Amino acid sequence: MDSFLQDLRFAVRTLGRSRGFAAVAVLCLGLGIGVNTAIFSMVNALLLRPFPFRDPDRVVSVYSRETRSGDNEQSSSLADLRDWKQQTRVFDGLAMLYSRNFAIAGDGEPERVEGWAATPDLFPLLGVAPALGRGFTAADAVKGGDRVAVLSDALWRRRFGGSRAAVGGKVLLNGVPFTVVGVMPPHFQFPEKSEMWVPLVPDPAEARSERYVYGVARLRPGVTPQRAQAELDAVGRRLAAEHPESNRGWMPSVETYRDDMVDGDLRTMLYLLLGAVGFVLLIACANVANLLLARATARSREIAVRAALGAGRGRLIRQLLVESVLIALAGGVLGVLIAVWWIAHMVGGIPEQLPYWIDFSVDYRVLAYTFLLSVATGVIFGIVPALRASRADVQGALKEGGRAGEGAGAGRLRGALVAGEIALSLVLLVGAAFMVRSFLAVTSADAGFRTEGLLTLRTYLAGERYAPLAARAAFFDQAVRRVEALPGVERAVATGAIPGAEEGGAWPAAAEGQPVQPGDEPTVMRVPSTPGLLAVLGQRLVAGREFTAAENADSTAAVAIVGESVARRFWPKGGALGRRIRLGTDAEDPWLTVVGIAPDLHYGEFGKASPASKLQVHVPYARDGWRTMRLLVRVRGDAGAAAGPVRRAIHAVDATLPTYDVRTMAEVRSYGAWPSRLYGEIFASFGLLALALAAVGVYGVMAYAVSQRSREIGIRMALGAQTRDVLRLVVGQGAGLAAIGIGLGMLGGAGVARILGSILYGVHAADPAAFLASPAVLACVALLASWLPARRATRVDPMTALRQD
């Protein structure tokens, strides 16, 4: 221990005398370790940190799986979930819940709140009790029982000022008074962003085909998800045989809650990010290793003296590694500070609320990771220079007048490190190019309609007064009329979904006279709208006519307007007008006569498409209106400026209804593209950082080579070499290293391209722009980094160089 402390004190003194070297080394490593720490904080938050409930590894999600499509995350029916719970022996409990919207009225502006209806065993299953009051009891979950609600801490503080008197008081939800019986602990919002929970009251007569419920279960101790899946498969097959009309083609599915919350694409992206920051750190390590190799040459006399005084090779290696690790630990401290800043910047760029269990903060796991990474980094970049320096020629180094120099092996090693830096940098630049091009492809994708001058917002028709479809239709008729009367408004429409933001309701469809096997029906988007959707979007019908005023007001009007893709899908030879189509699999579902063909719109995020989003069937709102609708308003001038008047016009019809998600279509487009933008920014920052570190590496090696070859250059110039000859000599050496690095990097970039081309939009593995621009930029930077030392070499005084010996 004494000898180690002695080495530590000596390392501190040595680095203190070489402040410039230490500062550059710490900065390089700080950047490399910082981005690694930041990305590991994401991995920690999403994959490693336990969920904030009891024994989270035993909590699983239980879904229905549609065997025909393979879609795993489908809601289930209450009857199926009850049977899965009762006919298996793998669960300690299984709670059921489904998503609900709530409109809170009372003091302040009406507010829409995201919530869930849940069975009383949800909170005990999770092991999380209310901080105030109580949870649900069995008596709360029966028809005719008291209407009760549990609030999140945030909602309690926002609407009730954090008053304890709120528990036991009333809150008006969807026009109905509910008693607040409990408040959950701070930050609890299960499953993701919920702010309110009410009891789920099951209807024993509900059909098995009504699939809208989500199951969350706790496995018994020792039961694996694989065993649970095996038992559920047996039950699923039995139910399919017993209830073929509702369960054929459907099977239960179980997965860990972690796998449910973090899908495969996100995991792939996290692993890619980890690989990218690993490359950045390797580049930083190569730079510091080159610095240490150069410093070892300058310290060869010092090391020889220590060896002559009796220091063994192991002691010399240990001393040099202590210095390396000390530098890396200092870089780790800087890296933590960089990571904290970077995380705050990254989270600030996310335009939506994150699930409550995601916390990107730097906790003890991240600090432990950073410490271990710093120590490992110090050993990795320090071991080769330490081994080479400890083999110093003692007699040669101690000769009076002997000059320090490095052998050909050290020069080749430094060149190999720089070529490796360039290769890794190119891989990162290719990845960044793919990410940026994907983001540009998403943001520039053709919307299919005029996006300028469009304002959109949501409203939710809450309460019993809007249970009748006629009441909902009357409200939107009045609301649209009031909005269209506003100055500057050209047209308005209420619609179930807007293109470019979300998918509407997906329904199986069949054409009259074209029988299909049950379960094989194609899925289409059913979009209910008030009159004028195409006019607001600046589109016209391809063929046929719009709905008449009578059809728009008739809840029994059996008419539809289909998109071009639907017309081609069902009637490829033409003649769709006048044909009939049915939405749904029930024989009682009405046949709708096609009266018009509309251009295809895209329901879903801009630049992305699903098979169902290309197939659209439009129906009058009065026939199939939903409670939650979008208002789409076309205005002259600034669409954002119309938001206030439009909201006031809606509240003039019913002041108790919430209006939310108020955005211009440009904002909708930007909002939908934020993941692509975020990934593009992250990879671009890594690529630029790698490029800068590689440039520093090339410059450092070439500058050191010039200093080592100053006598040779002086001789060449004394013998008549011109400036261009010296430039060609030095820049040529740098260009050779760049060519080797770019060649290797193209191989690695091809592998990255295959991965990214399969998960990104608008790019493919052979994207020419990425594979031409990235090596061109890197080559230019490498040549510039070589030219600067070469320029200095041309100023070498031949007489001064020749007098060095």
Describe the fold and architecture.
The protein has 805 residues and is an alpha+beta fold. Helix content is 51%, strand content 17%. It contains 26 helices and 22 strands. The strands form three sheets. A six-stranded mixed barrel has the order 3-4-9-6-8-7. Strand 1 and strand 2 (71-74) form a beta hairpin. The radius of gyration is 34 Å and the shape is elongated. It starts with a helix and ends with a helix.
Give the overall silhouette. elongated
* Overall pLDDT metric: 85
Strand order of the largest sheet: 3-4-9-6-8-7
Portion in helices: 40-55%
Rg from alpha-carbon coordinates:
34 Å
Q: What percent strand? A: 15-25%
How many helices in DSSP terms? 26
Computed structural class? alpha+beta
DSSP, total strands: 22
> Segments where pLDDT lies below 50 for 5+ residues?
400-404
Largest sheet: 6 strands, mixed, barrel
Distance between the termini: 44 Å
Task: State the main characteristics.
single chain, 805 residues, alpha+beta, six-stranded mixed β-barrel, six-stranded mixed beta barrel, 26 helices, 22 strands, elongated
Provide a compact summary of the structure.
The chain is an alpha+beta fold.
Task: Tell me the layout of helices and strands.
Elements: H1 2-17, H2 19-48, E1 59-66, E2 71-74, H3 78-86, E3 91-105, E4 111-118, H4 122-126, E5 132-133, E6 148-151, H5 153-160, E7 170-173, E8 176-183, E9 196-199, E10 214-219, H6 225-242, H7 244-247, E11 250-256, H8 257-261, H9 264-298, H10 300-308, H11 313-348, H12 364-389, H13 394-398, H14 408-444, E12 454-460, H15 469-484, E13 489-495, E14 505-511, E15 523-529, H16 533-537, E16 543-544, H17 549-553, E17 559-563, H18 564-570, E18 580-583, E19 591-598, E20 616-620, H19 621-624, E21 628-635, H20 643-653, E22 659-664, H21 665-672, H22 674-708, H23 710-718, H24 723-759, H25 768-793, H26 798-802
Parallel strand pairs: 4-9, 6-8, 15-20, 17-19
Antiparallel strand pairs: 1-2, 1-10, 1-11, 3-4, 3-7, 3-10, 5-8, 6-9, 7-8, 12-21, 12-22, 13-21, 14-15, 14-18, 16-19, 17-20, 18-19
Helix pairs in contact: 1-11, 2-9, 2-11, 2-12, 9-12, 9-14, 9-22, 11-12, 14-22, 14-24, 14-25, 15-20, 22-24, 22-25, 24-25
